[in-house]
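Objective 1b: paired records.
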Amino acid sequence: MNSHLGHQFALTDLEANYWLGEASLIADQARIQEAQLQTDADVLSIPRGAMLEVAERYPLLYRNLFYENLRRSRQIYELMAAMVFYPLRARLAGRLLDLMTDYGISRDGGVLLDVQLTQNDFARLCLGSRQRVNKIFREWTEQGVLRMHRDKYILLDLRALEHEVSAGDN
């Protein structure tokens, strides 16, 4: 999502073979989704008319789009609840753990996040300031929870991050 001031916030991280754009199937609605690539990817763009033609022939497509939309809506509700109720430390730890699932590679006694994100990126992902994210990363580095390696993070203590998330529940 982009604000009129240029601020950005990611609602979801898309996986390989992910569908995006079902909101564009409604003719009288402005497009409400945007996507940015953080890694190299192949993108297939299917014209709206072609999608509608296939969906009319195979209504099962609409059912599958409906289920996918519900799954994403649930993720967005969970994200919004975290933003409203969790402190920044818990939100940041949760984002790191989520990214680890999609981009993690076991290495050097930890898990390398094989995606290059700046502290500004993390601040935007967690609705925090870069300064506060920097402070939390510095504390976690001192505690041995994570470290930097060639502009990428290595998560060394996953339990500590999980504890940060569960502490946010209290």
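Objective 1b, second protein:
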Amino acid sequence: MTAPANVTKPTLLASTMRIFDLSLGQMLWSRRSMLLAFLVGAPVLLAAALRIASSADRLGLPRIHGARVGGAALFGMMMWLLYIRFIVPVLGVFYGTSLIADEVDDKTLTYLFTRPIPRAAVLFGKYFAYLACTVLLVLPSVVLIYLLLGPIGGTLGEAFPTLVSDLGVLALGLTAYGAVFAFVGARLKRPVVIGLVFAFGWEPAVLLIPGYLKRLTVAYYVQALVPHAMPQNSVVSQLMQALADAPSLPASVVALAVISVVALWLAGRTVERREYVLEQ
């Protein structure tokens, strides 16, 4: 008997969803989940310690010009210093660069590419699994921090608009950083090193330099969405206020969306065309 001549090939969307289902469980139980658990759990423990210290009134909470810092200010500083400046880029680097690089290192990419699905669907499915994994764990940790710090020196509802704004900004940041580093991981060797240099070397340096180079960073648009969270008394904030011309909120959202779509498209195109050599 001969095989049917017109075998229906799965569509890109259907193939992406299959890889998503396969990758999500693997990602949640991978070694990188320990990094995610630490990054998500440490700020929550810090917020709990601040809440206990405030309730017991034994440890002096931070003060600015002699005034005790309230829960809304503490929440904003934690969002800025821990999440926006550190956790979101780190997750983008370590998860985004690994989407294809891990399959190459483990020599399992061949098994995925021999399936009758578009090669780009492998990257797209793993990218959306990364996004679901990080968003579903990072955002609830932010809500817990809000519930812990909100009542300190004020009412719980005082910082609620800030909470909603920060949740959206974190989701956009994870989306954009993940897409950019997915392309880096699909295109370059040693992607983790390059990603760390970009996120913690190139971006902070360029943001302090006058000119248009800052527009080639993700942080420029992410930080423009959270001006309330920037510590106003820091040297970095004063330099950025003096040098930076922050884009508007709509422009930042559109820019992050464009960065995400273009980077993900380039990553998928790279996977479709590149021949990956598995080292023995």
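The first helix runs from residue 12 to 28. Residues 40 and 141 are 6 Å apart (CA to CA).
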